Amino acid sequence: MxxxxxxxxxMPFQPAHMTxxxxxAVSFLARYSGPTHHLYASQLRRWFAWCETNGIDALIGVERxxxxxxxxxxxxxxxxxxxxxxxxxGVRGYFRFAHTDGLTPTDPAVxxxxxxVHCDESRTQGLDRLELIxxxxxxxxxxxxxxxxxxxxxxxxxxxSEAAAVRIEDHAETLRGHRVLHLxxxxxxxxxxxxTVPVLRVLEAGRGxxxxxxxxxxxxxxxxxxxxxxxxxxxxxxxAAAIPRHISPHSLRHAAITNALDxxxxxxxxxxxxxxxxxxxxxxxxxxRGNLDRHGVHFLTAYVAGI
Length: 307
Known about the structure:
mainly alpha, 13 helices, 3 strands
């Protein structure tokens, strides 16, 4: 059994047969489920593989210098700075919990230097108001499932995996006079949000005569969609709407947030719409939306030109 094998699955390994590194990996991954579990498992597999290649135990005897050499290898492999930071989330958590559990005397990753990421602006290509309107209108002309997906992404700001997971039962309840949508978001956090009349209309069209089961289905097979299907459906809508640039599911979430801000929604309420735990994340969308329109170069040009 090699270091690289350890984080692949939780169950096949019995604790009595695990190395300390494997036990730490399994213990760390057991805290997570779903996409987060798979993401951290893939990040640990890469760390274990690098350690095996370089003749290093993946846990015992690891020093900060080893972790920083690994970070350098990620950078030299061509990953962007933001991707390197993301790749280190699982590794840093692995060492943090190993130290907390008493498997290592120190945490070698806690002070390891990560590449600097400039995140003052969101670079996602969103849609302006007219593009968003056109996207929503065109989506409904393709199939009822495309229409339901477009509204969940572009109005309720759902993530791709969240939209794919919506079930008919999730929007059947009425609270304080509002039809609401129940969902489980990022980090397995439950959320409840109101459904406006236009959104409810397209969701009901997507539901048809069904009363239970996944809401959005593949139009040809009738099977539930997954994240890849969501991506392909968004691409199809964008082509049909003649939007001349790459549009992803996150572009629709981005559009929902920025257009809400343009409509005058306070930043705190936009944060609730986006379900951002940190208001600074929502502020990135606000800065990206206003940097070009409010840039000082406009005022300077007018001042110098005497306009």
